Amino acid sequence: MKCLALASGKGGVGKTFLTASFGLALARQGASVLLLDGDMGLRNLDLPLGMEKQTRYTSWDLARGRCFEEDSILSVAPHLDFLPAAEEEDWKAVSRPALSTVLEDLADRYDYILIDCPAGLGKGIRFAEKAADAWLIVVGPSWASRRDALKTAACIGKQGRAALVFNDFQTGSDAGVSLAELIDSVDGLQVAGVIPHSSKGNRLAQQGRLKEYQRDSAFGKAVELTLKSFLTGTVYPLSRWQSLLQKAKKEDCERENRPAGSLLLRQRAKAARWRRR
Ligand SMILES: Nc1ncnc2c1ncn2[C@@H]1O[C@H](COP(=O)(O)OP(=O)(O)OP(=O)(O)O)[C@@H](O)[C@H]1O
Ligand SMILES: [Mg+2]
């Protein structure tokens, strides 16, 4: 089993979204995967997975013997399970050694355990430090996010391999910050991949239907390529990621234009009817 932790430093950069996306991608490739919500007190991983209503028991209940494994571990999709975080208690109240024991008991059952860490460098990160073999540190499209990610990388530096994932990037005039400049300034850390902004991915996540994202979309391809890069150590050139950003932009434009186009057609047909009268 490999335990991968997703952290960031800065909040809101897509850790939860990517934990779910990477887990789904690995499960689609046939690996058995457990997604662990490590954000005690501020859990969210149930939402993109559409598991909000099924979530009754949590990893903390399991650690305290308040439920059985089958009560708290939920099946999301073939090969993909999910263990929710506590909602009422935060990391101050939750015993890290007890949760580590839960993970140790589950380790043999999965090829991968993915931990969705909280933002910042608090106790949630300390828990993941003990469990994780490798880290994916998520960087959003801002210099502030890059700075916090590098701080996080330095903090967890000795605990397993770490690589950066640039998430939610756009191309051309839509990009607020230059991807090339950001990548040039990461102090020799491995860049595992660049994930494009995906309006469709976000919409699916908001509706709890992220598992429906398409493998052959730019987003789906970037997710798989990032995993491949991270797991095999292959480094892909910037041009490869930039072409996926272009493809994502094209897909988003096509999707946005479709309703506008059909509206235009309906308006033209209406105008033609009026002219005939
Ligand atoms: N590549 C992307 N394309 C489109 N939307 C995205 C992308 N990545 C993240 N989002 C959206 O950005 C929002 C924030 O993402 P998410 O909740 O995963 O961040 P987080 O780092 O886990 O936040 P927190 O630090 O609060 O835990 C979500 O609404 C998510 O759907
Ligand atoms: Mg989160």
List strands and helices in order, with pairings.
Elements: E1 2-7, H1 15-28, E2 33-37, H2 46-49, H3 59-63, H4 69-72, E3 74-77, E4 80-83, H5 96-106, E5 112-116, H6 123-131, E6 134-139, H7 143-155, E7 161-169, H8 179-184, E8 190-196, H9 199-206, H10 218-232, H11 238-276
Parallel strand pairs: 1-5, 1-6, 2-4, 2-5, 6-7, 7-8
Antiparallel strand pairs: 3-4
The chain binds adenosine-5'-triphosphate (ATP) and magnesium ion.
The site of adenosine-5'-triphosphate has 19 residues, from helix 1, strand 7 and helix 9.
Descriptive report:
There is one protein chain. By secondary structure, this protein is an alpha/beta fold. The chain has a single domain, classed as 3-Layer(aba) Sandwich (Rossmann fold). The chain is 46% helix and 17% strand. It has an eight-stranded mixed beta sheet, sandwiched between helices. The chain starts with a strand and ends with a helix. It binds adenosine-5'-triphosphate and magnesium ion (MG). Residues 15-16, 39, 44, 116 line the site of magnesium ion.
